[in-house]
Give the backbone structure.
Amino acid sequence: MFLLTNSLTLARVCKIIGKSTDGKKAICIDKENQNEILAYIKQSPRHTKKWLHIVQLILEGHKNTELYDKEEINEKCKDVTAMKFFKGQENDRIYCKEQKMEDGLCIIVTAEIYLKKKSEKVSKKEIPIIEKVAQYEYKIE
């Protein structure tokens, strides 16, 4: 017997690049997109500093919706978040997938980059990216 569902998950692999001091949260990077993501983060000291600041906020459990927030635009997009770089300037995003692992570890996987977001609201260009990230299901390498 087969069970059909409306949800499609895309199996992906990630690796841990940072962990909280209590060991309950980890920042990971999508293996398939890691070169693009790392190139973005390392392109300038300004980008690296912003990245480290956002990661520190997440791992220490601080809330700052100006830098990191949920992107729940519809029912399909639960657990998708965005790291927000230089709002009001370049306005770039790294879309992330938050996922609870079997051992209880909460991983935040940097999954996709979107450069130069133009509007305050989520536009038709961002919706497919966010929906795609929502379908990702990660295994840690």
